[in-house]
Specification:
By secondary structure, the chain is of the alpha/beta class. Helix content is about 45%, strand content about 15%. A hairpin with a 5-residue loop joins β1 and β2 (about 10-20). The two termini are about 35 Å apart.
Length: about 190
């Protein structure tokens, strides 16, 4: 799950839930941070217009292996130990630590399947809505269908780029309508 948000002070956030350790390696954080910057201003714009940014990885495991609940990663000037203060921040939240602190309780809730066992009422109520309420289940089904269709389209694009399968074969393998695969193929053609 990824969440992209901007607060009232125009700070930008990229929050990523990572189950696989490989999805939260340091260069992945650097890449995510660079994408925010690259999309924040146009070439030639004053770089002072770059917003303050936060890339936050909530990881299932302690990928930085320091046995800390949270890691704040900041650039430092090596020679004097002072903060570089480029307004780019990376935060890792260790999902393994589920203690009695507010953060530990949140990590417990994020890994909990049963809303009745969650610590935070607001999160439990939302989880209960999407799991138990008919309208919530419909919303979640629609979201899951959109995610699956997006993933199928991305897989079809990769298959088309490799050029080893016909559009008909891709349509059959991915259970995608042929007209969608053909549209994706046309979109990949150079203009």
């Amino acid at each position: 799950m990824d969440v992209k948000a901007t607060d009232l002070k125009k700070k930008e956030y990229d929050v990523e839930m990572q189950r696989a350790d490989s999805g939260a390696r340091p260069k992945r954080a650097r890449y995510s941070s660079s994408l925010i910057d690259a999309n924040a201003i146009l070439p030639g714009d004053d770089t002072e217009l770059l917003p303050e940014t936060y890339v936050i990885f909530i990881t299932e495991n302690d990928v930085l292996r320091g046995n800390l609940p949270i890691y704040h990663v900041e650039r430092m000037i090596k020679e004097n130990g002072k903060l570089f203060d480029d307004k780019s921040h990376i935060i890792y939240v260790n999902g393994e630590i589920k203690d009695e602190t507010p953060l530990g309780k949140l990590m417990q809730d994020l890994s909990c399947a049963n809303p009745n066992e969650m610590n935070y009422k607001e999160l439990a109520d939302r989880a209960r809505f999407f799991k138990k309420d008919e309208e919530g289940r419909k919303i979640m089904s629609k979201i899951m269908e959109e995610i699956i269709n997006h993933e199928k389209n991305e897989a079809a694009k990769r298959m088309l780029e490799k050029g080893k399968l016909t559009t008909e074969e891709i349509s059959e393998y991915l259970d995608l309508p042929i007209h969608i695969v053909e549209t994706l193929a046309n979109d990949l053609q150079p203009v």
